[in-house]
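User: Thanks for the earlier help. One more: PAS domain-containing protein. Can you show the sequence and predicted structure together?

Assistant: Of course, both are below.
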Amino acid sequence: MTGFGGGIGGRTEAVAAEAMLRQVRGYWQALRVGDALPLRARIDPRGIEGALERAFLIERIGPGQAHFRLAGSFFADLLGMDLRGLPVAALFDPLAQPRLAEVLEQVFTAPGVAELALEADRGLGRPALSGRMLILPVIGEGEAPLAFGCLPTEGDIGRAPRRFLLAQALVERLDLPPAAGLAEPRGSSPRRPQMQPPPRAVPGRRHLRLVKG
């Protein structure tokens, strides 16, 4: 199984991955009112047509920890199992999990926008596979901190399960006005390199195939 479908070359996969990231980030940006974070209730799967199978919603369950609330069908292909209730760390090699915990905590509490460069473990039946994971904070209604995003990949899944090493992590801390987002806790992490938001996306028409947790 390939990252974006059989027979698609690396260059085409890279273009498709970039388009997916732009669409999801642009849709998230379009849902914001002023500088406030988007409301989870306003997220419509039709707005991220090009990322439906690779989209996810995660919930903070503790410092540096989150689990999947919703996930596109691609994630079940990647891990070879149902993701309902599984921690986000299940996608990552144990060596990457401490850094992942730092990133998740920044996303949820700063808050911030994270983009991760990922490389899958390799071996027999596990060909080259890379990905870029975008994590965007949103506000629920009386819920723990939430985030949604997507994971486009390049290469073949091969033999599941596949887990990722964290090659690079960029976190853009959001400067929000009072009451516009989550409060910043004591001892929060310092600023990370800034990333420029892409153009806004145009809502699509398809429906997201999700696994509910």
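User: Great, one quick takeaway?

Assistant: The chain has one domain: 10-39+48-176.
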